[in-house]
């Protein structure tokens, strides 16, 4: 099994050195075994693997949920934070990877521009409220990182406001991890050409018109500024406790395969199992056998 965590983890000499996103090819497929190994077309093979790993993820998620259920919700939780440029494939990743698990145990939240009320509580206020309770797998489709990305690029707040947020985010995430939540942060990394392709699809396909927002083209025009903001956030807010991964995402089948593996490895670390019953199993079985 490929160690996707080491392959995709961002590497920076220090938090002050931004991650070089240009050095990561969005079309690349790190860790994917070649046709010689699998004997199959890589895309078809990866899709089948996503199905197979999805079943494993579902079992792991059920164990997480079961453990918390017997511990009165005191169990651990997992939080996947997804960030990407527009059309980066967050929705698709949620559908295909998180979708393999039981919706009852999922806590999925998408973050758009904050309302006036949300803004009043500070940028982490709505994020705290959306954290997954014990036993749940949470997914953030965009997150508190928007407050050092779009806010920075579009000048929605002055630097004196957004710059101290890196440290605030690190403190916050440390607190979340200490509270029993495993945090996995993933940037789905697409190329400028792929984004153009996907935006064009949204304008061509009537079933996708609703996904297009004219402001997407304004964001696209500031691609380099966004990348600079990502590069700094990734470097400043990567830690062993709450690591950042950059996942090449031009190929959707690779994206889903790599993300499935990342989650699988994350669950494996938790060493989950189904809880032992706190009642006398044999006695209960005898009771039921006698009733019939
Ligand atoms: P897609 O990638 O499929 O277009 P999306 O995540 O862009 O999906 P939208 O509803 O189109 O979903 O956009 C959400 C918008 O909310 C994004 O433009 C994002 O930058 C913005 N947003 C999220 N958080 C904040 C924030 N804290 N401050 C300002 N804008 C934010
Ligand atoms: Mg959008």
Automatic annotation (TrEMBL):
SUPFAM superfamilies: P-loop containing nucleoside triphosphate hydrolases. Residues 55-267 form the Polyphosphate kinase-2-related domain. Residues 18-39 are annotated as: Disordered. InterPro entries: P-loop_NTPase, PPK2-rel_1, PPK2-related. It holds the Pfam family PPK2. Keywords: Transferase. It comes from the Bacteria. One of its GO terms (biological process) is polyphosphate metabolic process. One of its GO terms (molecular function) is phosphotransferase activity, phosphate group as acceptor. The keyword Transferase applies. This is Polyphosphate:nucleotide phosphotransferase, PPK2 family. It comes from Asanoa hainanensis.
